[in-house]
Amino acid sequence: MDTPANAVVKNSIFSNHKDEEAIEIDAGITGTVSHCLFFDYTVEPALGDIVPTDTIWADPQFADAANGDFTLAGTSPAVGAADDGTAIGDSRWDPTAVSIRNDVQVPGHFNLAQNYPNPFNPTTSIQFSLMGSGYTVLTVYNMLGQEMATLLNTELRSGTYEVTFDAADLPSGIYIYQIQSGGYTAVKKMLLLK
Questions:
Q1: Do 44 and 71 meet the contact criterion of CB atoms below 8 Å apart?
Q2: H-helix or E-strand containing 1?
Q3: Nearest residue to 82 (alpha-carbon basis) of 144, 36, 21
Q4: DSSP bridge partners of 57
Q5: Spatial distance between the Cα atoms of 37 and 42, rounded to a whole number of angstroms
Q6: Helices H, strands E: what count in the chain?
């Protein structure tokens, strides 16, 4: 998994696959990795400079993973270990859940929203929706067309996402952000005022 700057990875279960890392964070990336469970590791996850907190290294004890049943056993170390006291992983896996809210909807169209706040100093949020899965690149350019930052460069599933852009090292001015995913491309302007 490629990771954007200021990454937050939490409440997730990771397993390596064929001696490849299930998660890889480049050195120099800031962010947090917390309340995660890692298992079946012959290769340690590459977390760059991030030191994971509240992390478990154990078998999650899935009911029948080979046949697609990822319900956690009541004795699983993942039960109650998430940051909100629920189970790490998908809420549908939690054997202690009384009700599960499953209102995730696939967006009906691709959309790149206007950043907020705008103008901003020095951080702003960029939200976008993907109707289908695809390799997604979110890039920031100055008005001369020079690339200033790549905020995302990874495969994403359909859904709505939000990325934080920190322009602390950039001068005031108008910047352009562009998203490309599958055959979809959209561009918006934003104003950094320091």
A1: no
A2: none
A3: 36
A4: 38
A5: 15
A6: 0, 14
CA pair distance 152, 3, nearest whole angstrom: 7
Cβ neighbours of 24 (radius 10 Å): 13
pTM for this model (two decimals):
0.48
Sign of the C-alpha dihedral, residues 93, 55, 37, 133? Answer: positive
Task: State whether 162 and 96 are in the same domain.
Answer: no
CATH of the domain at 154: 2.60.40.2550
Looking at residue 81, the DSSP 8-state letter turns out to be: -
In this structure, are residues 54 and 34 in contact, taking their beta carbons and an 8 Å threshold?
A: yes
Tell whether 77 and 57 lie within a shared domain.
yes
193 contacts 162 by C-beta, under 8 angstroms: no
Range of the domain at 132: 111-192
CA distance 6 to 125: 12
Per-residue pLDDT of the chain (194 residues; tens, 9 = 90+): 444 566 778 888 887 665 566 666 777 777 788 888 888 766 666 777 777 788 888 888 888 877 777 888 888 898 888 888 888 887 777 776 654 444 456 667 889 999 999 999 999 999 998 888 888 999 999 999 999 999 988 888 888 888 899 999 999 999 999 999 988 999 999 999 98
